[in-house]
Design goal:
Blueprint: E1 57-61, E2 64-67, H1 75-80, E3 83-88, E4 112-118, E5 131-137, H2 151-158, E6 168-172, H3 179-192, H4 196-206, H5 214-224, H6 231-236
Parallel strand pairs: 2-6, 3-5, 3-6
Antiparallel strand pairs: 1-2, 4-5
């Protein structure tokens, strides 16, 4: 017994049906390495996130930024960040200082000087020149340096910027760790009415490397008679978490 299959064209006769089109190979769009990823869902920004990390700049308050010396001379970048004033605590490194500031001021306080830097003088006469004012503090990163005397002039200088007009002041030292963060901690204590340990935590949450040298921390304790930081524990490991140094009220 045999089966006959009726397949058009198999018996030598021409088929009346049109031939099937040849298959064509096409690349799947999903396999393309150039396909754009789907848009990310919008989310509220983390208030503790550092929006200037690529320049090693940390936003402590709306009008107060802290950084290392790296970005301090890039006035174009600073201007675009809204920075209109700079406190330079890098005074002892002659090749990096931005202006001269030897000696104390007339009041016998912190030795400092101020200099105005013009970003684009070529626009003078056509547009208001973009200028940044720099205060250079005469303070070294040594435990014996008297940084308390710099607080008042630095605070007054920083307060010339404000959140309302979108301007800010950048405070920097060599690494953005000791001198600049000491100024920032004291500023937060003064204008946010925080204890030393809480102000320290506030700054360190926003700039993880914040760590005043032991002498500066002792001065912060003495400045307001604030006994919320255990200086012995801090001296043992100043780079630890702030809670490790906390002294509760009445603590020894």
């Amino acid at each position: 017994m045999s089966l006959a299959l009726d397949i058009p064209g198999c018996d030598g006769s021409e088929s009346s049906e049109e031939p099937l089109p040849k298959p064509t190979l096409t690349k799947s769009k999903s396999a393309s390495p150039y396909r754009k990823p789907p848009p990310l869902a919008l989310s509220l920004p983390d208030p503790h996130e550092d929006p200037y990390s690529s320049f090693d700049v940390s936003k402590i308050l709306p009008n107060l930024l802290v950084s290392s010396k790296g970005v301090a001379r890039n006035f174009e970048v600073l201007w675009n960040m809204g920075v209109r004033r700079v406190v330079d605590c890098n005074r002892n490194e002659g090749e990096n200082k931005m202006s001269d500031g030897d000696g104390d001021d007339e009041s016998g306080g912190c030795g400092y000087s101020t200099t105005t830097f013009t970003i684009d003088s070529s626009s003078a006469g056509r547009f208001p020149a973009r200028q940044i004012e720099v205060m250079t503090l005469n303070v070294t990163d040594e435990a014996k340096s008297d940084i308390i005397r710099c607080f008042e002039p630095a605070f007054k200088f920083i307060r010339e910027t404000s959140e309302e007009d979108g301007t800010s002041c950048l405070v920097h030292c060599h690494s953005g760790m000791s001198r600049s963060c000491t100024i920032a901690i004291a500023y937060v204590m003064e204008f946010k009415n925080m204890s030393l340990v809480d102000a320290f935590k506030f700054v360190k949450d926003r700039r993880r490397i914040a760590s005043p040298n032991v002498g500066f921390m002792s001065q912060l304790i003495r400045w307001r008679g604030d006994q919320t930081v255990d200086i012995a524990k801090y001296e043992h490991d100043r780079f630890g978490e702030v809670e490790e140094f906390r002294l509760e009220a009445g603590g020894d």
